[in-house]
Design goal:
Layout (H helix, E strand, L loop, with lengths): L14 H12 L6 H25 L5 H12 L5 E2 L1 H8 L3 H13 L3 E6 L2 E9 L1 H21 L5 H15 L5
Length: about 170
């Protein structure tokens, strides 16, 4: 007789289970199964928002500042983009981006220079101080995100990422 393999560990009931059970009791005519997923996704999103805000605050950054600086950092050396490219990557309006670049420039985290290919345009470049801030904030953020995922195996991470990608794909541009 071979030894019995343990099945997956099922965590105890959580608040979402109690909410779903209550809705099933009160509205047995409704299929409340989506709550099992989306209520948990919503709670995780709130937790992630809090962790992100804390990680960024440790480096004196707001979330929007991190978004702009990280877009520049991901661009690779020399860490520069046009305002139009920044707008596309951060999904904000032109006026909002101008204001954000102005504020980041005053803090010494980005600089502006004339666009050599368009005399009317400018290029926004990450400064060494901006690179240091975004790199440190990113490292802290990833530590916090690893903690949030600690209950899952690497295989579970891959499967969850694939399922979320599939769920989001109809909404992606």
């Amino acid at each position: 007789m071979s030894p019995r393999r343990p099945g997956p560990v099922v965590p105890p009931a959580d608040d979402v289970d109690h909410i779903v059970d209550a809705w099933r009791r009160e509205r047995p005519d409704l299929d409340v199964a989506p709550l099992q997923v989306f209520s948990r996704v919503s709670r995780l999103a709130r937790r992630l928002d809090l962790d992100r805000a804390q990680a960024f605050a440790l480096h004196q950054l707001e979330g929007w500042e991190f978004d702009v600086l990280s877009a520049l950092r991901r661009a690779g050396d020399p860490y520069e983009l046009s305002p139009g490219q920044l707008i596309r990557q951060t999904l904000v309006t032109s006026g909002t981006m101008t204001n954000r670049v102005d504020r980041l420039e005053r803090r010494g985290l980005v600089g502006r220079s004339p666009d050599p290919t368009d005399r009317r345009g400018v290029i926004v470049r990450l400064t060494p101080a901006g690179q240091q801030a975004v790199d440190a904030a990113m490292a802290d953020l990833l530590d916090r995100e690893r903690t949030l995922l600690a209950e899952l195996s690497p295989k579970d991470h891959e499967e969850l990422a694939a399922m979320l990608r599939r769920l989001l794909s109809p909404f992606e541009v």
